[in-house]
Amino acid sequence: MEPVSTPERKAALHALLDDPSKAVRTAVLEAYKELGDIGVGWLRETSRQEGTMAEHARRMLHELREDDPKAAFIEFIHSYRYELETGSLMLNRTWYPDLDPTFCCLFLDEVASRCEQLFCEPSTDFEKCRVLNRVIFHEYGFRGAQDDFYHPDNSFLHRVIERRRGLPITLSIVYLLVAYRCGVAVEPVGFPGRFMIGCYTEGEPFFIDVFEGGVFRTAEELESMLETHHVEVDPSLLAPISVGEVLVRCCRNLVNQFTRARDSESARLYADFVHEFENAYKRKA
Question: Does the reported pTM lie above 0.70?
Answer without folding.
Answer: yes
